[in-house]
Amino acid sequence: MRRTFRSAFTLIELLVVIAIIALLIGILMPSLSAARENARTVVCQHQMGELGRAAHLYAVTHTIYPACVDNYSISGLNTDRPALDWLGIGDQTGPFNPGNPADPWTGNPKGFSAAPRFGSLYPYFMNDKIILCPSDQAGPYVPNQVVGYGNGKFSYTMVAGMALRSPDRIPKDTHRTGTTVIASDAPVFVEEHGDGCNNMHKEGNFWGGTQPGNGGGDKMVARHGPFETRRGVAPQTGTGGPTVNLRQGRANIAFADGHAETVRPDFGFHKGHAMVPGYNGIPNNVVGLLYRYGVKYDLIRIPNPAP
Q: Per-residue b/e over 60-75, b at no fewer than 16 CB within 10 Å?
């Protein structure tokens, strides 16, 4: 009887093929991961551009940019009601409470769950989801983390000094050459880090403060790659703490003319890391951000209404 023999892989050949496949996967995975992160960065940048363009359209209609919560806070106008700011939340005092999404008068800060639908800027972008960066992660606040854990709702915040500002009257810092600051150089929205924000809700307004430790201002997150190692001060120790290695990424910024950019915030993301050397002695990265673009921090107060 004639026998038929069929060729097949030997065990050694099969192991070699598996090893080659594993090697190729190992080579390709970092590239695929980087491609996914690049895609998230682009989506985030697009979303921030949408917010910037919305603010620009608002300014075209109203001659000024929308208000932020700090305009109401420093004026004493949002203690018992939600602020009529761009996002539609009041300032937070005491424990966080999300409230009822259908009722902006509830929650702490008031209007948290309903935001951004009752914000003054919402009619200009009409999309609840664009205020959350796809690279953001919901979770408890962890200091000195480049990812910047949030609440899964807000990733972006307004630069408070730009609120209620006319596009043609942006305050110029003294170090800037020329006579004016054009809108394409004025940051109006940034990616915010949990450090420096109020208890749990992780969305404030990107303000400058006046002295080290006086509020200190919100911090800018650098959650997008490529990442680099830089030196900075250890968390929760201020400017006098030990110097350590930090994983530094990049952040998206939306400008007052409606365009967005991805930048490496070399002024950091944490108080004590976040200082332009020698600039008024304020270890605060909103100061560094505005200094970088030649904008002076100046928060506008809202006049108290007549009783």
A: eeeebbbbbbbbbbbb
Please state whether the peptide bond connecting residue 307 to the residue before it is cis, i.e. omega within 30 degrees of 0: no
Q: Who has greater pLDDT, 2 or 132? A: 132
**Structure-derived torsion over alpha carbons of residues 27, 32, 38, 40, reported in degrees to the nearest 10:** -150
Could you give the percent of the chain with pLDDT greater than 90?
16
Under 8 Å between Cβ of 135 and 224: yes
Query: Hey, which residues does 250 pair with through a beta bridge?
Result: 224
DSSP conformational letter for 239: G
H/E stretch holding 192: strand 187-193
Tokens of 175: 């170090």
Average pLDDT over residues 207-213: 47
Do residues 130 and 47 lie in contact, with contact meaning Cβ atoms separated by under 8 Å?
yes
The domains of the chain are located at 13-293
- Copy the structure tokens of residue 293: 């673009």
pLDDT in tens, 33-42: 778 888 889 9
C-alpha span between 64 and 168 (Å, rounded): 9
**Residue whose token pair is 């004590």:** 272
Task: Identify any residues that bridge with 150 across adjacent strands, giving them in sequence order.
Answer: 138
What CA–CA distance (Å, rounded) separates 218 from 147?
Answer: 15
